[in-house]
Amino acid sequence: MLRHCLVIVAVLFTFCMTPAFSQAPLVADVPAAQAEGGGVAKPDAQSSDYQPTRAEVDAWEDIWAGQRGIINEINAKAMAWRKRVAEETAGLSEASRLHEEEFRRLFLLATTFKDWPNPLEAVSRRIAAIARHLRLIFEPVVLARADAQRLLDRVSQIVDNLPEEVSKGRVSAEMQAYVKDVGQAKSRLTVVVAQYDAALAPFQTMLKRFQETRDDIGARLPLLWTKYYLQDPVVWTDPEVWEEAALRADSFLSGIQLRLPVELPVTLAQWGATALRFVVFLFFTGLLTVLFSRRCAPSSSTARHIFRISLPYLCLGGALIGSSVTGDFFRLLLALGNLVIIMGQVFLAWDLRLLQHPQDREAAAPFWRLIPLMFCAYALLYLPLENLFKLLVWAGLLVVALAVSRRRAVEKFEMLQLENGALEMEPVLLWICLAFALAGLHIYSMALYLLFVSCSLSVELCLGGMSLINRASERLSREGVRSALTRLCIALAAPVVLAAGAASVLLWIGTLPGGLDMLRHYGFQGMNIGGTQFNIIQIVLILSAFYVTRAAVDMGTRFLSHLPSQQGLQIDATLIPSMQTAFTYALWCIFGLFALHSLGMELSSLLMVAGGLSVGIGFGMQTIVNNFISGLILIFSRILQAGDVIEVGGITGIVRKISVRATMVETYDNALIYVPNSEFVSSRLINWTRNSRSVRREIKIGVAYGSDVEQVTRLLLAVANRHTNVLKYPASSVVFSDFGASTLDFVLHIWVRDYDVGVSTASEIRLQIEEEFRKYHIEIAFPQLDVHIRNMPPRLAGGRHPVRRMREKYLVQKKRTI
């Protein structure tokens, strides 16, 4: 009986742990267990005489019957599946054959036009449509096969978890029948799944070939489009070129028909879905514009023009782009949407510029005059015309544009240098484009003109957006949590504006035939330099992190500067500069690590760079690193602080700023001296104001011998104590320092309240001392020397002066010579 109960518990555990059978757990063979052992065994050994009640037996019987019913139902479903598989897969082979034939034709076209990007793109779109249609045909069979596989997994789990006693047959007859039914269900379901796999094998193989062909075409398209735009010049003076163009003129309509599934919806269902997406996108974007307009309540005419003209153009273009999204874009709708958005950008960029320069409000958007020729360039690039015809039409358009520009008066704007420069540059650019076109490089000519217009509009849009951000930043208050959060949003808006400006150029590229393929290949995949990969997403993230870090540094330093004034915070104000420096360096270090991580640089690469830097430091950067380390020591040890009066290397001045390389010291002659930080650490430094601003000064006085010493002392102390800049404590003192050669020397020690007034205070006290000494007839003696001659030399004892005698002797000798 115990063995039977273990089997029952194992089967019950299997069904309880199976998610699909959690609502119908497996139960034990209660009657069989009672027949052999006379009852149900309990886990406790002392309960061997336990007899279940009638209610317990009935409950186990119901659960067991339900479990057997589930297995029987699975068996019945498996048998029905075996009969139905042939019916479900009967028409699949014919459908596969038809799609295989069409795929072969498309594959032949792809091989024939392997160097032409336009037909290849159309072939790729057609293969995608065939694959979608084929999936719809095989979808019921795929779903049925998935259901059969799920049931097979459930039954296989039951079989795998049966205990060893069941496999050896040491169970009751009823349990053996149950195990047999489970085995039959597994075998039948295995056969059903195998039949479905056999029927779906050609379908899976065909889909794999479809995907491989599309992947191959997708890999070649960017390079083919690049080759198309960088093609060799058209020798339009060669008669053979004209003959070939005339022969290929008939292919214009066939080219349009081939590209029609790529450019526009074809079936009625596709048109309906496209129209629905257009209406939905237009409704929601228009609703957001209306709500935003009511929320802002624009008062100026420029702001109203933004909401009434610029933003509706953008909404319409976005709706056209949204309507073209079906997994693959309908390229004509995408191009129309991009062109409408470009028109909206022209108005929006000019409106944003007028917010900063309202004096030109009456003038029309200056870049609007560049749009017609730009539209013509797009149309020529878009249509499948022969290169010779494109060249002739483009050259004619350039000539017309030059004639119009000569007749048009040049409009000057007072403060808008970008617009003035672009309009002045346009005629020169038209001549350059015409020269390229006449040289047969009409593709280069059109690309150059489009690049000029797109870059000009992008820069104007960025300048307008940044001026709007600056205006919003200037109107914000400097305090408060709301102001800080708003500044953070503004900091995030700056990279968004720059990214929008860059995206506007990408929008122009995406409008070109093959532009999306080239952007996907050259832009988003990026380029590799060594082991580092760069792409647009990484650059945008790094720029955003830069502006966020800068805003966080600004807010953090401002918050730290206000900490000493906060009530309840006992923070020394002299600690704030060091805290601000540490906070700034920490944030910028985090930004640097984030930027390196975003670029894919690993720690091993950084260690290699650090090793190279260590060698460079040892040879050529020792002084720089010494100053850097010394700067960190000065900042965090607080030996020096801004405002301290120091003396180092014979220079006395006030510390204005401590950086990581040098310290800026302002002398009392108003000269700024940048002292390397290493001098403060390696040489003697005198900080006059490190303890306090009060300093002691000495004034030396010498009075004549015979003066009243006590009176001199009293007068000196009285003069010192009367002065307002002299501190009462520590008290002033007078020292009788020496008996000089000519004077009695005194030294007056005074404590001045501030170092900055020490020199002026000493000068004023000297003046008052001189006045007091004159009043009391005390002589301030000057150095003098008394010479006492004991014995006069004999030759000097005569009456005449020796110099006079020498002069007379000289005159006598001169007369004799004459």
Automatic annotation (TrEMBL):
Mechanosensitive ion channel MscS C-terminal domain: residues covered: 698-780
Subcellular location(s) of the protein: Cell membrane
Signal peptide feature range: 1-22
A single GO cellular-component term on record: plasma membrane
Top-level taxon in the UniProt lineage: Bacteria
Membrane-spanning segments: 268-293, 305-326, 332-355, 367-385, 391-407, 428-444, 450-469, 489-509, 529-548, 582-600, 606-629
Membrane topology according to the record: Multi-pass membrane protein
Family annotation (PROSITE patterns): UPF0003
Keyword vocabulary terms for this entry: Cell membrane, Membrane, Signal, Transmembrane, Transmembrane helix
Primary residence: membrane
Limits of the Mechanosensitive ion channel MscS domain: 623-690
UniProt cross-references to Pfam families, sorted A to Z: MS_channel_1st, MS_channel_2nd, MS_channel_3rd
Family of the protein in this entry: Belongs to the MscS (TC 1.A.23) family.
PANTHER family, sorted: MECHANOSENSITIVE CHANNEL MSCK, POTASSIUM CHANNEL RELATED
Name the UniProt record assigns to this protein: Small-conductance mechanosensitive ion channel MscS
